[in-house]
Design a protein that fits this description.
Helix 8 crosses helix 13. With 387 residues, the protein is of the alpha/beta class. It has an eight-stranded mixed β-sheet. It has a six-stranded parallel β-sheet with strand order 12-11-10-13-14-15, with helices on both faces. A two-stranded parallel ribbon has the order 2-4. 41% of the residues lie in helices and 16% in strands. The chain folds into two domains: 198 residues, Rossmann fold; 182 residues, 3-Layer(aba) Sandwich (Rossmann fold).
């Protein structure tokens, strides 16, 4: 029995966590959450919802505003959570997101069984410029049995924070490639290229770079269009930017789309953009899920040398990579590749093969289960360690 702690089960952008938990076969998972959301989208029965205690707000205020340290759960919450774990006869606790594990540190230290924590990208650098937060993160990393990361780049970032390298295991995103079959694209001969980016509308996704590079492309191919699927705080600013660039009639914002709708967009599109960049707060990517799914479908991906992206894309072979923030280089690569449909087809094929080889879901699920058994102590572990 494996307990999976996810503070909100689940936000719409957490499909990868749902896939991971529900694909487990050699262990039996149940979920502990503070809040249940999107129950129809993510059906799951074995879940204990433990709401925030009445004094939660005051406790957070005391820790964060008065002491300037990360808040941690109270002794009463530790007792309640330990009771749930013991009643379920859990053998291991898997905490999703590193900053959540910092808050749960009293539970990690009190509960006698092993804990693993998984980092996904944004949670690696949360508030680490503050000495108290960095110290609390280091203490949490010392307390857990294993640390799972979605890319080697995230693993290296945690080593820099102070995580022992021998604790780190690479746990890549699992993509259900059988549900996203490769389809060769027919490249337009009339200039009506269809661009796509699907992501949360936040800084690290490089959306302004995408818009500005597309503007340069559209100057040469005025029939081109660009769909930006997703929701987030940059939505209005992106709309204003598109209008300022003269692209108001060429850029579409459908908002959040379902998995079925996203796959339809994949197959209707010709080029996928994901020029990720490090945010001003240090926020960085692991390996973007939408990028991997686009590759699996046969979409050529144009991205950046950022985070874990180069671990999924070999530049010029399975995709195209440029430097972060380099609008001119991205536009140039797009224009050059649009004039070379044979090369585009080769990149599309190699991209799909790369995802099937490195990120196929059943293989990643088996690796996660191996890590669980390693942490429990029933095997020596045979997964991918940080190099």
């Amino acid at each position: 029995m494996i307990a999976c702690y996810c503070a909100t089960f689940l936000k719409p952008e957490m499909l990868h966590i749902y896939r991971q938990i529900t694909s487990l076969t050699r262990v039996s998972p149940f979920v502990i959450a503070q809040k249940r959301e999107e129950a129809e989208r993510f059906p799951f029965d074995r879940i204990a919802v433990v709401g925030k205690p009445a004094m939660h707000f005051l406790r957070r205020f005391w820790f964060k505003q008065v002491r300037d340290t990360p808040w941690q759960i109270s002794p009463g919450e530790v007792k309640k959570l330990t009771g749930i774990l013991d009643k379920a006869r859990a053998e291991l606790l898997h905490i999703y997101f590193g900053h959540i594990a910092v808050h749960l540190q009293p539970l990690i230290r009190s509960w006698p069984r092993p804990t693993v924590v998984s980092f996904h990208g944004a949670d690696v650098m949360v508030d680490l410029e503050k000495p108290a937060y960095r110290a609390a993160t280091q203490q949490m990393l010392d307390a857990v049995r294993l640390v799972l990361v979605r890319s080697e780049s995230l693993g290296r970032a945690l080593v820099a924070v102070g995580c022992p390298p021998e604790k780190i295991r690479i746990q890549r995103t699992g993509i259900p490639v059988e549900d996203i079959p490769f389809r060769p694209r027919v490249w337009p001969t009339d200039g009506s290229w269809k661009f796509l980016q699907a992501s949360r509308l936040i800084e690290k996704k490089g959306l302004q770079v995408s818009l500005r590079a597309f503007a340069k492309f559209a100057a040469k191919y005025p029939a081109a269009t660009f769909t930006i699927a997703g929701e987030g705080p940059l939505r209005n600013a992106l709309g204003e930017e598109a209008a300022q660039l003269g692209l108001a009639d060429k850029v579409l914002f459908p908002g959040f789309v379902s998995q079925g709708q996203l796959r339809e967009l994949f197959y209707r599109s010709h080029l996928f953009l994901h020029p990720s960049e490090t945010g001003r707060d240090g926020n960085q990517e692991g390996v973007p899920n939408s990028m991997l799914e686009a590759m699996a479908s046969g979409l050529p991906v144009f991205a950046t040398e950022h985070g874990g992206i180069p671990e999924a894309i070999e530049n010029g072979k399975s995709g195209v990579l440029v430097r972060e923030g380099d609008v001119a280089a991205l536009a140039r690569a797009l224009i050059e590749m649009a004039a070379n449909p044979e090369a585009l087809s080769t990149i599309a094929r190699h991209g799909a093969e790369s995802v099937r080889r490195q990120f196929e879901q059943s293989g990643q699920t088996k690796m996660l289960e191996d890590y669980y058994f390693e942490a429990i102590g029933s095997s020596s572990g045979s997964g991918e360690k940080l190099s």
